[in-house]
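User: Assemble these into one structure.

Assistant: Restating your components, then the assembled model:
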Amino acid sequence: MENKSIYIFEAERIGNYLLGVTVQDSEKNTYADAMQKLNIQLSNYEQALWNSMIKSKSKMACIDAALALKEPNNNARRKLFTMLAIIEASPNYTSYFLSRNFSFFYIVKIGLVGMRAVCRAIVGIFIINSIKRKCN
Amino acid sequence: MQLSYDYIVVGSGATGAIVANSLVEVGVNVAVLDVGVEDEQYKEIIPDKDFVSIRKEYSDQKDYFLGKQFEGIPWETAKVGSQLTPPRSFLTQLTEKLIPFESDSFKPMESMAKGGLGGGWGLGCYEFSKPELDAIGLKEPEMLRAYDAVANHIGISGIKDDGAPYCLRDLKNVQPVSELEQNLSGVFTSYNIQKNSLNKKGIFVGRSALALLTKDKDNRSAVQYRDMDFWSDKDKSAYRSWMTIDQLKEKSNFAYHKNCLVLKFKEHDSGVDVIVKRTDTNEEQIFTCKKLILSPGVLGTARIVIRSFDYKKEQLPVICNPYCYIPCLQWRMLGKEIEQKKTSLGQLVMYLDENRNNFDVGMAALFSYRSLLLFKLIKETPLNYSDARIIMQYLQSSFTIAGIHHPEKGSASKFICMKKDADTYTGDLLTGQYILSEQEIRTNEKREQKIKLALKSLGCQPLKTVYTPHGGSIHYAGTLPFNDNGQMFSIHSNGKLGGTKNVFVADGSGFNYLPAKGLTFTLMANAYNVAKNVLKND
Ligand SMILES: Cc1cc2nc3c(=O)[nH]c(=O)nc-3n(C[C@H](O)[C@H](O)[C@H](O)COP(=O)(O)OP(=O)(O)OC[C@H]3O[C@@H](n4cnc5c(N)ncnc54)[C@H](O)[C@@H]3O)c2cc1C
């Protein structure tokens, strides 16, 4: 039961990071169910990363971006990935995933998002290096 | 339970179903022995709707899109077989336990399912050319008749265009081609504009011949363009081998025995004993027949034959098409909404026929991306998930994926080997090695380079080349090469297994060569001929 409330809290944070909205209870419950079934084990280092990610949305974004480049298979990311899949497989959030006609100028937004991702990765690399040092 | 039949067929996959059907049609008494795993979890819960409607309306979609145990959320590096969606994962269920295979360089996919790998195949049908059939060891006139008979049974749609010499040839009774989706239609238009210059380089593009109905046939409906091809077979428009088995089950001269893992056979004066380990009770059972037809897939046949010949030879050759895929960006499709009605099938094929002789042709099947869901694409980007989601939602309509198969022949460094191993279910273990020579690797790379250039000229910018481990093409052959001298561990061109009187092989074990084009239609046509030969042999 205690675990479940932790997972519900995680789901809320991750959902907010991924889509910028408060996800519905059904998705939070599915995430809790997934965590119980998948039983993702974190090493000390991964746990330290996770503790830092869960504290704030911006840290989550930066650490995720850095890990995507340097350690894409880090288990802390697996939690985010699981929630991403859960949100996609829900009728509540299809507009975030299904294709649609974008205006020609949307490509500018895409460019900016790409640049933001790079900046996040640079900041994230500093964060994960300092966490790594502390863990060693 | 009846244990004695005139004809016993091992396996219900692409080849087994055709052999059984051809035998039952003439009225003889036939049984299929099979492990016969079926999907009991997902079939009933997938709605009879199109992909977009399901995505927008159904709250339980996570159960089949992600799997009830979330097994459809891949994490570690992809294994062969991990491309199967949760509703298709039954295809490889029990294989690790019942038919383990160990190798660092060869990772084949096998099936213990009712309908075999034929339950999930991509439906691509290719009638091989005369030079290809010669190299395999098959006779063209008989094969042409068999191709027509199989096409009649399974239903094939296609069109006579530039690709026809490589797939349809002169096949009769072809249903109209399916409607081409927008993503691939841009590529095809571009090809038609530039075709003269591309043809000079040996590049030809045409619509795929698919075992997909575009008109109703028997109890199967024409394709509804629901884009659920990776998930369900609701309308039965796609041919799956289990459909033939289900039809046969209604005939009085046919029996289907599931939970039967065939271990080996033993010939005696009046016929053949088939030794089976029942997977429900783990007990041994003996069936008898006048003639035995093996079609458990190439590796399955190798296991049974090696055991039956008392491990006199443990190492056998094997052939498997090298395979890679290239995700490409098609600029003209950027930021567009994907149409609601489409299929997920490879509707377009590019052929590279450098010598214009329809031999050693390279092949790229072209697909768009949607119904496998966006999160799997997002995982492949080196970006954080929240930003990658925004970018990939924009890009998804412009992804065109080229799955490249290379033609292949055997060599001393490509083999399988059976070893006794008391710790396994059957007391033995199949291992193998698959290593290409430097020369073969160079030839394949050159072919890929030419295909990439052609893709670029059609507006598809290749992003990267993803190599799957050997075995990933799921096309296997050549373990008991065709040879008419009757030697053990070879197959006569009429399908009879060397060293036996009444045992035939109907899968691809005899094939001496594998064209890049999918082999399954040819496997089925050969299986049809083997059934005819079995009857003649009486
Ligand atoms: C995802 C996917 C896409 C594909 N796409 C294409 C394509 O587009 N074009 C193409 O040409 N090919 C394609 N293929 C390959 C095609 O499915 C195979 O070539 C074909 O199914 C092989 O037929 P088979 O009868 O030899 O074996 P299978 O279809 O695998 O059948 C084997 C059968 O034997 C049974 N069996 C095995 N061992 C035993 C035993 N010891 N005792 C009892 N029963 C046993 C199994 O239960 C099964 O029923 C694809 C395959 C997959 C998985």
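Chain A touches chain B through 50 residues (CB under 8 Å).
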